[in-house]
Design a protein that fits this description.
Elements (H helix, E strand, L loop, with lengths): L3 E7 L5 H14 L4 E5 L5 H10 L8 H25 L3 E5 L2 H11 L4 H12 L6 E6 L2 H13 L14 H17 L4 E5 L4 H18 L10
Parallel strand pairs: 1-3, 1-4, 2-3, 4-5
The structure holds thymidine-5'-phosphate.
The site of thymidine-5'-phosphate (TMP) has 11 residues, from helix 4.
Length: about 220
């Protein structure tokens, strides 16, 4: 049986990671077999690549960056995602290939054809069944990122967090463009609301999606 592959996307500070955790715990309480993962860093190799990618100490060349995200994804797809989906599990991934289109394509300016080729190579064609795009203005996301930095949740050295505002504006626009191009797969969630309101909206999307696939468990097991 095929599982379900749900990805979470958005600009930095959009609050998606909190929402992945909240959804995973709701689904697990219902007894569903959930795999919670992320990119970069969903495998042991990926965790080492993530450290290298987000380290502020060394400037990573944009082409090296594109290929390192692809390497992380190739390992993730083959070692974790494909086996989990083949086993019928529900996979929630905090970022996937849309992030490369948005950050390396629109953000860094790589040709869409090159970006798509690299993505196709890394993913082997694996696409999410559903993508939740947490949309937030660049100003609001910058404010949240600054708050996380001062509360110690993120280190000020996270290199990409320090990118200029117009970089994040291009990334946001690219995400919205993906959502317009693929409205069936990509659902936009207003990330300016409270954590609880956003969570409710996530459930409004995910429960019917799983019901339609016969993957929503009706009874609580705990
Ligand atoms: P995170 O903030 O979701 O943990 O992601 C870490 C950073 O990595 C974030 O700034 C976005 C960036 N990123 C890319 O630039 N390209 C990619 O393909 C992925 C997966 C992440």
């Amino acid at each position: 049986m095929n599982g379900a592959f749900i990805t979470f996307e958005g600009i930095d500070g959009s609050g998606k990671s909190t929402q992945v955790r909240m959804l995973a715990s709701v689904l697990r309480l219902r007894g569903m077999d959930v795999v919670q993962t992320r990119e970069p860093g969903g495998t042991p190799l990926g965790a080492r690549l993530r450290e290298a990618l987000l380290d502020a100490q060394e400037q990573v060349d944009p082409l090296a960056e594109l290929l390192l995200y692809a390497a992380d994804r190739a390992q993730h797809v083959r070692v974790l995602l494909n086996p989990a989906l083949a086993a019928g599990r529900i996979v929630l991934s905090d970022r996937y290939a849309d992030a490369t289109v948005a950050y390396q394509g629109a953000g860094r300016g790589f040709e869409p054809s090159l970006v798509n080729e690299v993505i196709a190579l890394a993913t082997g064609g694996l696409k999410p069944d559903l993508t939740l795009l947490f949309d937030l203005s660049v100003a609001a996301s910058g404010e949240r990122s600054r708050q996380r930095t001062t509360t110690g949740e993120a280190t000020p050295s996270d290199r990409l967090e320090l990118e200029a505002e117009n970089f994040h504006a291009r990334v946001r626009d690219a995400y919205l463009q993906i959502a317009r191009a693929e409205p069936e797969r990509v659902r936009i969630v207003d990330a300016s609301l409270s954590v609880e309101e956003i969570h409710a909206h996530v459930l409004e999307i995910v429960i019917p999606f799983l019901e339609n696939r016969g993957q929503w468990t009706q009874t609580k097991t705990q």
